[in-house]
Amino acid sequence: MRHRSESTPRYIIRQEPRGTWMVMDSMTSLPAATDGKDISGLSKVDAEDIAQELNRSIAGGRDPLL
Prior knowledge:
This protein is of the alpha+beta class. The chain contains one helix and five strands, in the order βββββα. Helices cover 24% and strands 24% of the residues.
């Protein structure tokens, strides 16, 4: 597992092989998931928006994926 630097946001986006985008948890190097489903198969804009909102929640002291 990669180690996350303090400057790396918790949630980042990665392009998937089929050209869609996913939100990845940089602490685990696994796709972020909610309700048992990976947050993947998204447009780039949607993945960016979701990652930004998840990171805002973390910064606000909330666990966004409970």
